[in-house]
Every structure is written in structure tokens, then in C-alpha cells.
């Protein structure tokens, strides 16, 4: 895991406008052999972390015999907190990690927010991405659930104070009770509670940066303008059949950005495809990554 002062890079976007992107040193875990020649990099979703992908990472290593690197996005898990959170920055963080590990190319698997991060990386740094797997998120449309449910969850998380609590288990029990009072379902509560731990400030509380994620929710919920860019490498969009996040009608817009994209669904899975149908997910994804 890496921690250091944030870097500032001035990057010129090819669509004729300039902007400053911050870059942070991301926390990560390497699974399998320490071979960094075209590894698989896994990018989690909003309010997730590399821990959510522990089991699947090990399974992918077993099937592919390739190195898997599971990453914590900025403002999540063990990665640094930062005052901004946009997809160009998230993609730059991943490229910075690759450069720091001397990784020239990698297969990218990204779920939800991580999927959009992977898309931006592939569109802006195409030579760095061998193959791209986007799990249950679209660059074209935004599922309505993002506009209502997630902001309410973040608002509830912000309202919980852990002052005076210095034990992680007590903090989880306290937060669970308050989340239940807001009629949030048990599965979602369990997922949210995984964000409670020792913060970068050495206190017990949310390991994710709830304030910044709330502030930048519009940026997270919408894919940035990537018009004029294309990623011509092999790309798999894998959606949950029970999820609204990748409508079938998005395929034409997807192919404008990713001409070699294919769209598949796992019928009985929801948004967390890898958790809902792990066996089928593993089979489809590894088969795609091992294609000649």
C-alpha cells in the first residue's frame, strides 16, 4: 500500500480545453504471482473497496494464472482522501499507479464507478489498456436509482457521528441501528458497514470520504464528455439482468466510444453482478480475458 503527498499534474485534454487533475498514490493488493507483465487491475464501485473483490480476485488468479491487482479508489478504503473526485482524476490515479509499478499495459475490470474509471482510462490512455471489462454501468445513460437512493444513503452516512467511539465493532453496531431506522435494506446496510474502520486520521469512523463523495455525486453519477475519443481494444460490457444500469438501447452509443464492445447479461444478477452470480461472472470474464 502506498501513501505520500498528493501530486499535481497539468494534463492537456485533446478536446481543446485544459484542466488540472490531482493524482494520489492508491492503495492496492497484489494477488497471485508478482508478475506485472500485463496484469489484471480491478476497480471497485462507489462505497466499495478492494476488500469486496478478495474472493473474486483469488478465483480469477486461479483460472487465468495472471497477477491480479485490486485497487482502492481515492476517497475509499485505504487510499488517501482528497478534496475532489472526478473520473479524469480517478483514471489518472490508476495510470499513476501503473507507472509507479512499471506496468505498461493491463487488463482492466471495473464495476460501476470503477467501470467508468476504466472507460475513461481506456479512452484517454488506450495504449495502457489491453482489454476492458465494464461491469453493470453505462457511459450513455444513468440509472434513476443513482439520483435518489445513493444521495439519501450518503446523507444518512454524513449524519452519523462517531464522536466518543473508539472501537470499530461498537461503531458498526451504532451505525447499523441508525441505518435500520431509515428503512435501508439489510444487504445495503451490510455493504455500507464495510466502510467503517480506522480513518486516515487515526480515528474510528467512515474510511470513505463521505463529504467529498456527496459533494461530487453529480460527477460520479454522470459519464464525462468523451466525444471524439475511441478505444478500439476488445471490450466487454457485462450487466445484471435484474439491473437497470445498462439498458440494451445504449449499445449503439457504447459502440461509438468502444467499436469492439460486446454486451452480455447475467440473467438473475442485480447491480453487484460479481457477488450475485460469481460462478457465471467468473466464467464469462475469464473466457473473455483469455481470448487469443
From TrEMBL:
GO terms for molecular function: carboxylic ester hydrolase activity. Its EC number is 3.1.1.116. It is an enzyme of class 3 (hydrolase). Residues 38-277 form the AB hydrolase-1 domain. GO terms for cellular component: mitochondrion. Pfam families: Abhydrolase_1. It catalyses: a 1,3-diacyl-sn-glycerol + H2O = a 1-acyl-sn-glycerol + a fatty acid + H(+); a 1,2-diacyl-sn-glycerol + H2O = a 2-acylglycerol + a fatty acid + H(+); 1-octadecanoyl-2-(4Z,7Z,10Z,13Z,16Z,19Z-docosahexaenoyl)-sn-glycerol + H2O = 2-(4Z,7Z,10Z,13Z,16Z,19Z-docosahexaenoyl)-glycerol + octadecanoate + H(+); 1,2-didecanoylglycerol + H2O = decanoylglycerol + decanoate + H(+). Keywords: Hydrolase. It comes from the Eukaryota. Belongs to the AB hydrolase superfamily. This is sn-1-specific diacylglycerol lipase ABHD11. It comes from Papilio xuthus. The lineage of its organism: Eukaryota, Metazoa, Ecdysozoa, Arthropoda, Hexapoda. The gene is LOC106117588.
